[in-house]
Design brief:
Layout lengths: L19 E4 L2 E10 L7 H15 L6 E7 L4 H6 L21 H14 L3 E8 L6 E3 L15 H11 L3 E4 L1 H14 L3 E2 L2 E2 L13 H7 L3 E9 L3 H17 L15 E11 L5 E2 L7 E3 L4 E4 L5 E3 L4 E4 L9 E9 L2
Parallel strand pairs: 2-3, 2-4, 4-9, 5-6, 6-10
Antiparallel strand pairs: 1-3, 5-9, 7-8, 10-16, 11-13, 12-15, 13-14, 15-16
Helix pairs in contact: 1-7
The structure holds zinc ion.
């Protein structure tokens, strides 16, 4: 491709990541706050922008520890106004010696930044309606997939961000889906459908990377993409996190008492383009045991194995990709 004239700034691929750090003059924990890991999820970007102005004007103060803000974590996706740039930044997160795409280059700068902090607040929004929710990692364990020792701190952080709904169990459910695909590959017309999702590492995003290096973190889904209230949810979460960690002398509000903890227990793949949902599910719609959630192209019914919830339904999922997750209330 040749250009008749020099590219305008907006058509050029972003060449840097903008980070704002504030170091309190007393020691304390190190917090990282991310916005727009997905480029069309800008509530975090907007809330961070407000808070940077308040820190710079003196309306807010950082007295202990460190807080770093990345208002736009995937600048290519943000520039394009879409979820991903070359690929989803929140998957397969790791440094690479030979980066293959834009997100690999961002990860090479972002991973050392995650390494340099203790706690992460990652601000997202979602497409379909519903209430905000927060995603946490596993309970404390010494397993191989996601060993963890900071579950109590992470739960405290989740409860102070605000939403009453907490979702856990992402990586081990994801890993189960990967194993199942590898053991029984989906075939169409006699040939195996190549799944993009054949590697458990692909399930590693910002929070999973953070836990893998001894930190902890939550993903806060603040509301619908263009709902102005999602900016307030993000802002509230940032301020309460600064209070909880003692970085800023702000009043700490009581933790969310009305908690509902949902555990992701299974992921169901779409096996054929003719597979369809029985209705237009929204995330966290409740289902009864035996209720039909979808119909396979073959005519087979996909039923709820027990009472639970449909989570992250994707009617447009590709073949051999995640169609929906099934969750249950944590006992
Ligand atoms: Zn997102």
């Amino acid at each position: 491709m040749t250009h008749a004239s020099a590219p305008t700034p907006n058509s050029r691929q972003p060449s840097h990541l903008r980070v704002h750090s504030y170091h309190g003059l007393a020691p304390g924990p190190r917090l990282l706050v991310l916005g727009a890991v997905h480029g069309n999820e800008v509530c975090g970007t907007r809330a961070i922008t407000q808070i940077l102005a308040e820190l710079d004007s003196g309306a807010l103060a950082i007295e202990r520890g460190t807080v770093s803000f990345v208002p736009i974590t995937n600048p290519l996706a943000y520039q394009l106004g879409q979820r991903t740039g070359d690929r989803n930044l929140n998957r397969n997160m790791a440094p690479s010696a030979i980066p293959q795409d834009f997100e690999d280059r961002i990860a090479n700068v972002l991973c050392p930044l995650l390494d340099a902090h203790d706690a992460l607040l990652d601000l997202h929004s979602f497409h379909t309606g519903g209430a905000p929710f927060v995603m946490i990692g596993p309970q404390n364990n010494r397993g191989e997939l996601e060993p963890f020792a900071n579950a109590a701190q992470e739960m405290q952080l989740a409860l102070h961000t605000g939403p009453h709904r907490i979702v856990e169990g992402w990586l081990d459910t994801y890993a189960r889906g990967v194993k199942r695909r590898a053991a029984a590959p989906i075939t169409e017309g006699g040939s195996r459908v190549q799944s993009l999702v054949t590697d458990t590492n692909y399930g590693v995003g910002t929070t999973e990377y953070m836990r893998s290096t001894g930190g902890y973190g939550v993903t806060l889904e603040c509301g619908q993409h263009d709902d102005p209230e999602s900016v307030n949810v993000a802002r509230h979460a940032i301020l309460q996190t600064l209070a909880l960690l003692g970085l800023s002398p702000l009043p700490l509000q009581p933790a969310q008492g009305e908690r509902e903890i949902l555990r992701l227990v299974d992921v169901i793949d779409r096996e054929h383009v003719g597979d369809s949902f029985s209705r237009a599910w929204r995330s966290f719609d409740a289902v009864k045991a035996g209720e039909v959630i979808g119909l396979r192209y073959s005519g087979a019914e996909v039923k709820a194995p027990e009472d639970g919830f449909v989570v992250f339904p994707n009617p447009g999922a590709g073949v051999a990709q995640e169609w929906f997750y099934f969750a249950q209330r944590r006992a």
